[in-house]
Amino acid sequence: MHIDINCDLGEGTDLSSCGRDAQIMSFISRCNIACSGHAGTPEIMERSIENALHANLKIGAHPSYPDRDNFGRESIAISPERLLESLCEQISQLTSIARQLETELDHIKLHGALYNDAEANIQLAENITTLFAGEYPSLKILGLANGAMETAASGQGRVFIREGFMDRQYLNESQLAPRSLPKALITDTAKCLNQATCLAKNLPFKDYYGGKLQFNVDTICLHGDSPQAPALAEQLTHYFMANGLSIDR
């Protein structure tokens, strides 16, 4: 069995962070590169794409609310028109750099608070999906399995990549436990690896309340912004191999 692993990268403050990202790239199959909304500079974007090409990864854009001060992790007051304009600016900047390096983007994944807000607001999800369909028709949309973005994408005939999380608790099959809840983040490595395997194999796992969940995903998110990410990525590869799985590279 094969499973796709994605990671949000290019989120460091200088080029030295790209070296750490490159370590993670050896163990994943696709990356989502920050494109100046919450993080990222033209130099970091270029180096990230170069490293991703060297690692033979699928490359996607990782746009967000235009809010570098809060790393895109807080909802902000912004008009729908300005938000969509900002998303275009972010994705187009990364697209332009990719073309200069003679490659094309594969997908788009929203970041942080915008990811969560789109899942909580079907109208926002539909507006964003309509924008992506019109401006970037060749790019797939990557988002939460069973959520609003999947509903919006399916309704518009868009290719959607269903994402699961190895290090987040779920309230139900379509809703992550908010980070504000105690133990919403899974910090125990063994539990992360087990949940990743259950998601990859469509096996039951525990939700936040101790009940059971079971659903299909196309890709599993490995968060790249923790110091342990490179080591966890390598551990995940070995754990998968021991459980009859391999990374879809």
TrEMBL record:
<protein>
    <submittedName>
        <fullName>5-oxoprolinase subunit PxpA</fullName>
        <ecNumber>3.5.2.9</ecNumber>
    </submittedName>
</protein>
<dbReference type="GO" id="GO:0005975">
    <property type="term" value="P:carbohydrate metabolic process"/>
</dbReference>
<dbReference type="InterPro" id="IPR005501">
    <property type="entry name" value="LamB/YcsF/PxpA-like"/>
</dbReference>
<dbReference type="Pfam" id="PF03746">
    <property type="entry name" value="LamB_YcsF"/>
</dbReference>
<dbReference type="GO" id="GO:0017168">
    <property type="term" value="F:5-oxoprolinase (ATP-hydrolyzing) activity"/>
</dbReference>
<dbReference type="InterPro" id="IPR011330">
    <property type="entry name" value="Glyco_hydro/deAcase_b/a-brl"/>
</dbReference>
<keyword id="KW-0378">Hydrolase</keyword>
